[in-house]
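Suppose a colleague, Dr. K., hands you the sequence of a protein chain of 378 amino acids and asks what its three-dimensional shape might be. Before reaching for any lab equipment, you can write down a predicted structure in token form. Begin with the sequence itself:
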Amino acid sequence: MRWITVFLISVILAACGALPAQGPSSAAITSEKVASDAALANYTLIGLDDQAISVLRHYKPQSFANRFGAVPVAGRGTRLGVGDAIHIHIWEAAPDGLFSTERSKQSGIETVIDEAGFIFIPYAGRIRAAGLSVEGLRTTVQNKLIGKAIEPQVLITVLSNQSNSAVVVGDVVKPGRYPISIRGSKLLELVAEAGGAREASYETVVTLKRGSRSGTARFEDLIENPQNNIWVSSGDNILLSHRPRSFSVFGAVTKEQLVPFRTQEVTLAEALAYVGGIRDFTADPAGIFLFRFEEAGLVRQMAPGRFDAHVSAYTLVPVVYRLNLRNADGFLRARFVQMKDKDILYVANHPTAEFGKFLQIISPLISNVSTVNRLEFF
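The predicted structure, expressed as tokens, is then:
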């Protein structure tokens, strides 16, 4: 019966390559073959050492600010437009002028810039107002009245600046159209005028639509990185959306699952704790992998020369971070790595885990063969 034992073991060894697994083992991920495949797959493998963690902690994403960086700064570009309501005050030097009255040497005229961009002033006629600044329109009206009124002086007040406004909608307390101040308004200022976000800031996303361009940023990124709090331009559409964050955990962990963010910040260490930690008998502590997309500018700081100069610093590229928990400092580093929305965390199987599965499969067969051998012996 010994030939039966040899035959069974040979068959099982031949089928060992077909054993089920939760994913690639850490040995495969760190092999030279997979390193060459990384170049073909266009992802970057980065070890989470002290230098990489320092870059991650201090890097401030600015793709949102860069996309809308051409907006005029405060106090520039503010012009009157169709639909704006204005009040025109006209003073004269004598009580018997065109705009003087028995009680006062001045008159006030309220008007709205019509669909053609003009206003009408008695004795001055139709005047183009759209496209002019307040000072530009004041000078134009005053010059038109010279020779008709007695030493005219003009003051213009904007009652409603509908043409220089932006729309704020979505998950805000008071959605609507809000005027942009003459000095200029920043994104957070208009959101504040709309009552602010209804949901938690770390679960809110801001989308800005300007002409054919659009950009999206987490609400908290506007606060933590002031450069993302851009100047608003006339005609902008601002949408606030409630988007709870989550990350996925796979591999040799106690429980594979989709994990929602319970707080504003979740570290890599906390992410592993949420799923009960790694499995003692199957996980490779040196094979903790974090999959996400990062800006090319960030990757260049951790892996110099990784991308050519033609690749924009704000282009999103795939990155795989590797954490080694075999050393005690790995646990300290895990405290400083912040999880992001839609991250994928994978814990690789230890190479010996496959052999353990093999032993579990053949153990009943070996036991049966041993029983038969003992019966033949007797």
